[in-house]
Amino acid sequence: MPKQNTVNSVPELLRDAVTCPFCSLLCDDLETVTRGTQVSVSHNACPKARKAFAAATPAGSPLVDGKPATLEQALSAAKRILKYARQPLFSGLATDVDGVRASLALAERCGAIVDHLHGASMAQGIRVLQSRGHTMTTLAEVRNRADVVVLLGADINEDFHRFAEICLTPAESLSPERLAARQIFHLGPRAQRPRQAGLNCQPIVCTADELPNFLGGLRALLRGRQHGLTGRSAKALAPLAHALKSAAYAVFVWAPGQLPPAHAEHLIGSAGELIAELNQHTRAAGLALGGNEGGQTALATAAWTTGYPLQFSYAGETLDYDPLRYQTARLLAEDAVDVLLWISTFSAQVPPANTLPCIVIGNAASALTRPGSVYLPVGTPGIDHTGQLMRTDSVVSLPLQQLRDTGAVSTAQMLAALAATLD
Amino acid sequence: MPKLIALHGGRVYDPTNGVDGEIRTIYLGPDGIVPAPLDQGEIGETHDLQGCVVMAGGVDIHTHIGGGKVNLARMLLPEDHQRDLVARGVHPRMGCGHAAPSTFTVGYRYAEMGYTACFEPAMLLSNARQAHLEMGDTPIVDKGAYVLLGNDDLLLRMLSTDADPAAVRDYIAWTLDAAQAMAIKVVNPGGINAFKFNQRKLDLDEPNTAYGLSPRQILLALAEGIHGLGLPHPLHIHGSNLGVPGNVETTLATIAALEGLPAHLTHIQFHAYGAEGDRKFSSGAARIAEAVNRNPNISMDIGQVLFGQTVTESGDSMRQYAGSAFASPKKTVLMDIECDAGCGVVPFRYRDKNFVNALQWAIGLELFLQADDPWRVFLTTDHPNGAPFTSYPHLIRLLMDRSFRNDMLATINPDAAAASILGSLTREYSLYEIAILTRAGPARSLGLSMLGHLGLGARGDVTVYEDHPDRERMFQRPRFVFKAGELIVRDGKLVAAPTGATHVVKPDYDRGIEAHINDYYRRFMTVRPQNLRVAAGEIDGEGRGRLIVHHTRRDA
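YS: structure for the whole thing
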């Protein structure tokens, strides 16, 4: 419950059980202090959260061509851009559930193409899902059930920082014997190795480009087959293969956005097959860490609204799902769109370089000031307004609190105002 | 004052009020069905319904319309959407239909079929917020959801340490409250949890190795707890051994295990298999129907299989893993979920020339036709597990038209046809009985006094069909559908898309249980229970929806 404190006559608003919107782990045990418009985390902040809350300054004034404007002027300029668009692209999409809902409603109306700023990396996992499926698990299962955890080219030092504390090294577990015997491996570049205190991790060092070979080698070792690895690699993988053979519940953790793009789909698919092989005799599952900046939220909300995850187009008579064709970078490079509506409400995410008429709906850090642009300021979900976000495991979703009152509107409210100008 | 709508001259089938095909006039006001006005001037509009059949709006007691596994199925199957895209302008929102439809299309198509309420049977507490978000984007129909218990480590820990039954009851009530649910469902009691510990099957009296509890113990604890809370809908049971040849014995033993406590056995077709014959797969329908007929504490829905492509979505990860070998197309999603539950999504194509699929089809129909009491059998396909909900009109025709049924029977796998007694069953369901199976019965079972009937106090969900001898055609395309007194469908086409309500039950309970729950979450889980809890405002805030709270017998 909110508490009012008065220290040195500066009023403080204290909140607990606050959900952090800045990475898709959505840690919901933060304690925050609000002084005026400054929100800081007093307990349970990871380094990224501490910085992100501190950086969340209130949104400024609307801008048209980089110059301050009234909201009415800015909405009217945005309306002109949308009205004359032949093929708009709605991207960024870094917002909460209601923001995505409103984005999709307006995109349908405008015949827009829809993508998220992490759309390309999320699509890698979706392609594997759609071609062969997968066996996955969630955070509480990892925490309580796993006896072997393999971080597969995943870096949990900045993003997903508290994954170590919450899932890998908790004080207690429903299966204390598994927690006591838990073995944690990191397979990948040395620089990625988890540095959290108290996390005892066995490194198997390889470069990012060597990951496919190492994973293939591991599968071969588990099948007792020839693997074509050099002596050093085979030796490095042997303890992991041994651990997996005797594991009761093995979990493979990857972060699609951190895998080398050229190998990501193959690696995720290969990990999925390894998991399927293990499940023939024991239990194993995967966990993808990803969908930051509301990515998981955008994916889920798009899927229930349309049937499709990202990316798709509302331009035709029916929905057109084509994740390869409708990626932001490609559409911009090929001049396939003539207007960009960009939404970014968590961190500083300006649109990729482009010269198109551009509407940015964003927090203060995402403001765009170039000619031909309109900036519509909105709040950060979970700081300036309430909302909901989906967690990385695609199961849990959490409520966001309002921690200060700056009068900032939500993305959904701003989009509703924009839609009203088109009536 | 708003004018009344008079529905005049139609034959009314309203089993709740004992009306069986009488020609009556129904008066619809903004607050529901009202008595005939003294002053004819109050009537604003009269529809002449000569030659029409009038029923309450349909109520689907078991249909997977929202939540994580439904959304996984959507993401998994772009190729299925491709065959049934909803074009711009057909409905207020674009989307897709068929096996894994978008939320908007679900609402529109149910309404176009004359259904005005749908209940999602497998919501997880850990996923409840998402389920409600999806249902919030499902227009027109009223909805509600059953929350899963019986594989969550919290309950199993309580039961394995002989917790006080009062504490179990409070935990059940707290879960209903936190998840904003309408009932409790158990799926493969203890089995989903056991699968996480690598057990691959779990019989009714086989202990889950982690907790030493058998499905029987879990079922009894839940059924007793729910009975004690006085919930309108009894324990909703997806039993052990789904799909396993010979599981008729498990199902019969489950009925006996309930010791007379009220219970609902869902998609019972998937639990009515014998292991006889050359292929060790046979119909157990007669024995199941006989047991249900004999036990008035038991109700069932069928989970009818109809031929074609669909996708199976289930919380039963143990059985879905086994079924993944038969996936078509060949891909499966499995999940272990949050020390709470699990799920499995397996696309499947039921083929009429396949012996097992054809016999599954026949078994479902045998169950319908041998059930004596239509108030205890509900029409479902376990959408989309047996078939998409859009096939209900076809199913109704199979039940009402024996010669059509026999024509179909002649086209299926001949060995399956020979192994079934379906051809000898002469029963044809009447319109009155169909009205029970599809609206009056489900509404009564859920304790929804404003739905499923056309008497005073009904909210004004009314469906008008043209009486056509082809019952499939008749039920596919109602002439009119009214939702809460508002015309929403004319000649099978949507004309308005209002927002439906969400139904929840709120039994009284001792909040002292929260100390135990909070301690458990603090020690073992990854979220705070107060954040898991779905706030009322998340459902009914900003005019997005409406909550209807049902109080239980205890605090009534």
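YS: worth flagging: The mean pLDDT of chain B is 97.
IM: good catch. Also The domain at 57-311+353-450 of chain B is CATH 3.20.20.140 (TIM Barrel).
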